[in-house]
Amino acid sequence: MAWRGPMYRMVDGERVDGAWCHIWRRYRPGSEYYLDDLMVFADGAITCGARTDLAGLEEMLATGRLAVANPETPPLPDESSKWASRHGEPLTPEGFLLEVADRIEALNGRPTAGQRCRAAIRRFQQEPTESNRALLRAAYLAVPPHLRIYVLGDMDCQDRPLRILLTHMGEAVDGDGPVVTAEMHQDVLDYFGRGDRGVQSEQERRAVQHADDPSQPGRPALVSHETVYPQGWPEEPGLFMLRNDFPAQIVFAGDSYASVLHGYWALSAADASDGSRIRDAASGREAHDLGGRATRRSDWPDVRLAVMAALLRAKFTQHPELAQVLVSTGDARISYTGLSDSPFWRDVPDDRGRNWMGRLLELTRSELVAQQVLWPEKPGALNQEELLSGESARLRVHRE
Known about the structure:
single chain, alpha+beta, Tetracycline Repressor, domain 2, 6-stranded antiparallel β-sheet, two-stranded parallel sheet, 14 helices
């Protein structure tokens, strides 16, 4: 089955993670099957039409209410040789139950059957005794049969090395394969050793190439909500200072703007008179509405990200108290939501949302921290004159 996620449900205010897959279902015996969603959650709850658990799922499969494949599809022909076959075991209700149980383990962050099997392989490598071979055999057989060919992550050899290792010397693998010898067992151990060395080498390479990756998990995502204050902004607006319509006077490209929204939409206008009306709008929302109705510069799609980034730098470098609010968010991902801005700028829960405002706020935050850490003796290192001069000049040339 192809599992999809993430998904979750809320139980007493707590999030319970889950995953889902397709399954064949019918309402009553004798009726036709149709494709439905089977949802599995970390607490063991299973939903497909009704709420149940593993025992209930087993009963639904046994009575034919659910089927793991379309019953109308003819079965595949039997393989002439198990050893030579390149296909895994067929998916059965019993195997699917094991897979669902495995999915519950994974959702809880516990080892899956495949991971337990690989741990048993490592134990056998360190101490290749018959008792450890028996433990390895039990771990391998606990893997859902239709998934065993994937357990080693090697689609060239599939699970053949394990099948050789678990066959006693003098016996044929799978009954119709090669007769196992001591050399074959050693070859399998050498195969696992090469794999371990390859993994270690890759880990060492990644450690060098990813040396600047954060070593600790970051802060939870911060969601910047769009908010309306009909009676005016409160004295302590907190994180709402991050919004583009927050009234923070900025000077950019020789002009003064009452907010980032005033500056952005004024600079987008092709006609200078439109730009002046937008600049002088009574509020950021009004500036947005005027700007949306005005004719935009022909090159605006090419420069709007740079202009917005420059306006944010101006806002936070010219208002240190706002910069402190932004820096206080640490390394949290910033999700900029709302309805007024286009999906290009805001976070939308589908493939339309680009969240560029959130990204640019994170970039500006990083620049402010760099100013504090790398150039504390140069307060103007990230000032408008040095960082924004190129874009400002280009905008002035365009208007002149």
